[in-house]
Amino acid sequence: MAEIHISNRIRECQIHHMKFPWKKSVYAVASMSLVALAAGFLLPEKLVIPVKGATKSDWNPKSFWFSPWGKSGVHKGIDIFAKEGTPVIAACSGLVVSAETNKDGGNVISILGPKWRIHYYAHLNTLKAGRGELVRQGAEIGTVGSTGNAIGKAPHLHYAIISQIPYVWEFRTDKFGFDRMFFLNPHEKLTR
Ligand SMILES: [Zn+2]
Fold this sequence. Notes:
Elements lengths: L1 H41 L35 E4 L5 E3 L4 E9 L3 E7 L5 E10 L6 E2 L4 E5 L11 E7 L20 E2 L1 H6 L1
Antiparallel strand pairs: 1-8, 2-7, 3-4, 3-6, 4-5, 5-7, 5-8, 8-9
The structure holds zinc ion (ZN).
The site of zinc ion has 4 residues, from loops.
């Protein structure tokens, strides 16, 4: 009987010891997430023009949300024109969430930046950052090209900023009104 009693006590202790560090790590993860969440919202978001040497005269300020526009119907970003091979730089620091090739965008990079916004860089000639990489503002992430549905067009960077939280006041009742809540105007963000 005594033996059983002792082994039960040991088991109890073991359970306690197993539970405790587990609880601790949950608190650690929770508090780290809170810090990350707060940082995501508090980090300043002063963007740099994402093509090296480019100025605001290298894109048309009215091209954002221009319609009709190709297959997608509306232009969800701006096109910054530059010579092929010009370095594309990160408009802000962030985490590369994808670096891939797709039919329309060609070689594209998506970076999660401050305020949980995705910064989208398309038609790159070469990709110079990989998924999971942390990049600093101004770091080279690729070069200007004309890949994807920009083949045959003048080389340019298609740059878009996508919010993960809907900007409900931007909602429009037209065809693209729903999307409009998630796309910010890069022209406004780059010229402020
Ligand atoms: Zn474009």
